[in-house]
Amino acid sequence: MKLMVEFDSDGVQYPNIAAAILRSGVMVNVERALIDGDEGWALLDVDDRDAGKFIAALTRKGVSIRIQKDAVSHNRTDCVDCGLCISICQKQVFSFDENWQLVVESDRCVLCGRCATYCPQRALSIQK
Amino acid sequence: MYKSIDEINERIRDGSVRVVSAEEMPDIVDELGVTGALREVDVVTTGTFGAMCSSGAFLNFGHPEIPIRMEKMWLNNVEAYAGVAAVDCYIGATQESTTRNAEYGGAHVIEDLISGKSVELHARAKGTDCYPRTSITNEFTIGELNQAIMVNPRNSYQSYNAAVNMSDRAIKTYMGYLLPSHRNITYSGAGCLSPLPNDPTLSVIGSGTPIFIGGANGVVVGEGTQSSPGSGFGTLMTSGNMKDMSPDFIRAATMTGYGVTMYVGVGIPIPLLNEEIVKHTAVRDEDLKTSIVDYGTPFRDRPVIREVTYAELKSGSVEIDGEEVRCSPLSSYKKAREVAAELKSRIENGSFTMALASRPIDSQKRNKPMAEKGYVYHVNEMMVSTFVTITGQESVKEAAKRLLKGETNHLPVIDAENRLIGIVTTYDVSKAFANDEQDMTVSEIMTKNVITIAPDAPVDFAARTLQQHNIGALVVIDASRHILGMLNSYDLGDLVGGRGRR
User: Fold this and answer.
1) Quick check: B159 and B290 in contact, CB under 8 A?
2) pTM reported for the whole predicted model
């Protein structure tokens, strides 16, 4: 699953992610991050089975964690099921079902926003 | 065995007509044979739903109390062509709004009208004795128009090249966003369900052929612009009454970085009159070939990367250089099926009858490129062939000397084989000096990702590249990255100044 981790000014002072990995022994993949001296965020991918253990290890002062769900909002009325988003997205969020209707698997999304920018019908948006 | 249009129309009227979609036809012909299929099936419906930029509509507003001959006009701030006097216009799908750019355009005006929304008209005129008025601003809906006739100069391509980008920079095209280094492929068209692949010899489809367009019962006007059926790229000019259309089958769209376009649903019924026609409608995606071409080059004749069938494209992945590349359409196959199904139900319920074309379309015609009369300048004609270079091991101080001696702001960095590996500018060198880094080596401060250009590229493309990257010079290199010259932005100024004129 994907975890959206946000750090406040206290949270950025300490190597929270590294410490949580060492403490829990759980490997995570940092998919996107933006961290500076005052605050920051990181989108982490972690195996569903290890998520509880990792979240417990990461829970500290200055760190807020939420499970990233429904990252992509798909407007079915505007969408014409063209499928252009399918090959644009490198995380394979989009696919066709057997009737050529678009299927969106938001849990793979890393919030890059490219699908929303390039959707010809403007039928996709990213929840931040 | 033959069948006449009258026989088929008689069956449509008495409700006994047998209609199938073009997708079902190959299996039917396999099972019953060509003669059997001709006996069992009367009409094959086709459908496509995709971006068809070359579309638009004629509108007639009626005369106001003080008459005006509109000369310039805007609909929701999108300019429409008013040179068809006096209260008529042609609104083109790709025309962009003067206030909202590519987020709203002619296609959006058309979709808004079809959806019943009110649209603002603003027009200007010089005023004449017979048309005294000089301006008008008014709101209208499609119901208030005398006519709203969609006439699309180029619709329903027989097949279309699939797009890939072999360059190392992502590009924004009418084929969508193309990732660098062939990481995705996009394509358009419904393959074996598309109208023209089911009648490649244009033996049925011609001027006057009844069609489904945007939800209305419309007609083929004739040959489409740029039509090239002789090379497998036929197009059709189509028309239909916008008042009968639905936003289910007409959708405005924006290809980000390219502009406005319109998705149009077109379906053509093929009446099965003889065995030859039956054979054509038995086409499968496996039989329909197109080319994957490189949109990463700025030239008209884009390099063909490989041939591909619609069956491969529809599978979602195609091999290029031993790699599986993900591929997706920008036309909607689901909607294409809806078009074919809607057409089928109209024929079955008797509200859509068949007709023979009144004039045939030349099936051998091939499209010609533009024969440019003016001279097109290429990079090698404008570049400077004397330039100074430096190697990565030399010092920043040496780079400064070299820049001064060469009276230039750009210093390409080369390796032992004289190949381009980076660039340093006066800015980079000044920055190094300001930070007391003049003893560093050139390779430590250089920009490795150099923006380059080929000698045979047109200067227009060079100017666009300079602008896109906000830089002052391009390094001109050959295929093995050897430097041929430098193209400076100020050299391009000569084109405007006179040197470039003949």
Assistant:
1) yes
2) 0.86
